[in-house]
């Protein structure tokens, strides 16, 4: 099962690479067209914005899985194992609540967004804002799985160290900064 999950996250990372590359190519191409040929592709402005939205929200899920989000690591690092577990439980409960609200808000907003069309491409805006379903659901699932492992005593020392920001090698820190 872990292999399937790892493959899924590798797919998400590859998708993020494609979105970033597509965004860079469209913006660069449009700059060249505007300054070199006094023309441009209006669709590239719109699509690069949509790619950026999707890239950001998919990246939030990948970052959450890797404990890459901002935390109060200085405070958590002062606690022992029991204190860290309590902080991690509280953190995951808050994340479940907030991500659930985010998913529910996307659900309530979807009928409005589906009825609106993008100005250039004509795409339904539901395609742009629908990423909230993925991000909200994925963060809830990750937090539920972590909470289950915390409550059943299956959390590893490596995970607690990552939560407290103590597992940071020089290479890992340079990637984050």
List keywords for this structure.
single chain, 177 residues, mainly alpha, 0% strand, elongated, transmembrane helix, DctQ
Characterise the protein shown here:
The protein is mostly helical. It folds into two domains: 1-66; 71-177, no CATH class. Helices cover 79% and strands 0% of the residues. It has eight helices and no strands. It has helices spanning 2-37, 42-65, 73-77, 81-115, 125-129, 131-151, 157-163, 170-176. α1 (2-37) packs antiparallel against α2 and α2 runs parallel beside α6 (131-151).
Briefly note the structural class of the backbone: mainly alpha
* Beta strand count: 0
Along the chain, the helix and strand elements come as HHHHHHHH
Query: How many DSSP helices?
Result: 8
Biggest β-sheet description: none
Counted up, domains total 2
Shape: elongated
Distance between the termini: 32 Å
Q: Rg, please?
A: 20 Å
Strand content: under 5%
Whole-number average pLDDT?
A: 89
Helix content bin = over 70%
The low-confidence runs, each spanning 5 or more residues with pLDDT under 50, are none
Function: Part of the tripartite ATP-independent periplasmic (TRAP) transport system.
Organism: Rhizobium halophytocola
Subunit structure: The complex comprises the extracytoplasmic solute receptor protein and the two transmembrane proteins.
Protein name: TRAP transporter small permease protein
Brief digest:
The chain has helices at residues 2-37, 42-65, 73-77, 81-115, 125-129, 131-151, 157-163, 170-176.
């Amino acid at each position: 099962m872990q292999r399937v999950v790892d493959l899924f996250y590798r797919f998400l990372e590859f998708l993020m690479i494609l979105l970033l590359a597509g965004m860079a190519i469209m913006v660069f191409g449009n700059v060249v067209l505007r300054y070199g040929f006094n023309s441009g592709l209006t669709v590239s402005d719109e699509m690069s914005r949509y790619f950026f939205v999707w890239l950001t929200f998919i990246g939030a899920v990948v970052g959450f899985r890797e404990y890459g989000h901002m935390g109060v690591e200085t405070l958590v690092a002062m606690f022992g194992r029991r204190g860290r577990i309590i902080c991690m439980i509280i953190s995951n409960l808050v994340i479940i609540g907030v991500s659930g609200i985010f998913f529910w808000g996307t659900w309530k907003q979807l009928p409005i967004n589906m009825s609106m069309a993008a100005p250039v491409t004509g795409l339904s805006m539901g395609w742009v804002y629908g990423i909230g379903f993925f991000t909200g659901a994925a963060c809830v699932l990750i937090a539920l799985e972590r909470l289950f492992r915390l409550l059943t005593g299956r959390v590893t020392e490596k995970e607690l160290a990552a939560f407290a920001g103590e597992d940071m090698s020089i290479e890992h820190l340079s990637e984050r900064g």
